[in-house]
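Morning run. Coffee first, then this:
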Amino acid sequence: MSERKIAIIGGGAAGFFAAISAKEHHAESEVVIIEKSQKLLSKVKVSGGGRCNVTNGCVNINQLAAAYPRGEMFLKKAFGTFYTRHAMEWFESRGVPLVTQEDNCVFPVSQNSQSIIDCLMTECQRLGVKISTGKTVKSIVAINDKIDLTFDDEKLQFDKVIIATGGSPKRSGLTWLEELGHTIVDPVPSLYTFNMPNENVRDLMGIVVEETKVNVQGTKLKSDGPLLITHWGMSGPAILKLSAFGARILSQKDYSFNIRVNWVNIQNAEIVQNELKTIAQEHTHKKLTNYRPYLLPDRLWQFLLEKYEFPKDQTWENIGKKGINRMIEMLTNDVYQVQGKTTFKEEFVTCGGVSLEDIDVKSMQSKVCKNIYFAGEVMDIDGITGGYNFQAAWTTGFIAGQLK
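And here it is:
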């Protein structure tokens, strides 16, 4: 593809990776990133608390794809071309050493998102990718084999256009793509924490319980993992996974529902019962307040005892059968009322966007409009927290940039 003009709309992770891929695969072409704001890679900047969770350490494609509530089967195919191992090799070969944490989250060794930003900017500069900021696309029109982009002050024509504008919080933000003939899946928030304005558990802000299981009452939604208590309610991987996989269901409930928390992540009540009976036999004279099963955080344990109305001076030998049954309920089936949500940190993720049925997974080209390609969250793709959304950006951007 010699001397062709290629536009990438969107100056985020997917846009930059698509531009670099396009220039690497088609060196003679003119490649330009067009960004409506003055800020480039803003989401990369704030990701992971400013450290940038660049990808996930999972290298099993089936397991990797399962981390995407929307797009699992689509990405399973795409990962055959470019996945986590390729992404890690890509950044490290360009001077960004990475470290994989115990939870499989991958960060730059510098622990600074600027390392990723600098790498992407340097690659664009080295390859000769042009960058144009403060330019909003007013319309996009396909004419024969060309694509016309209209801005406030001019109209430009391109041979290929890669759309990497990210997720839109409102359907209206996707109208311009719908007008091209694409099917739009209504966007709703996908990665958020739970607000619990009426629950006293918020007084325990800062506490983390590493092994929990959480489910939404009246649904089949469930997840497990670490749970963080915050000053507004609950967060942590267990909650964020639930919000991602339950995005549409919880939206329909207007974010008002009850969750059940299993603080010990043991579903078999008999196992918990036997553990509590053993404690009652071995620590007969100890007060309940002075002996915590399962090494639960002390403040949480005291809170739960009070919530379930266990007397402060009660000893383990006096707990009785009813007391043990109540404690099983307390540990494995603790109910909280959720009313509302809060965006996870400064990261905004939506499900919804351009229907994957309109996109060829082998090339990321639109099946509806020739010479238009897609990359990143503008498509109906989203992952749970842990570097998965960036990996989807790298994968789809790399494939789109091949411009097959």
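The chain has two domains: 5-189+346-402, 192-343. Good start to the day.
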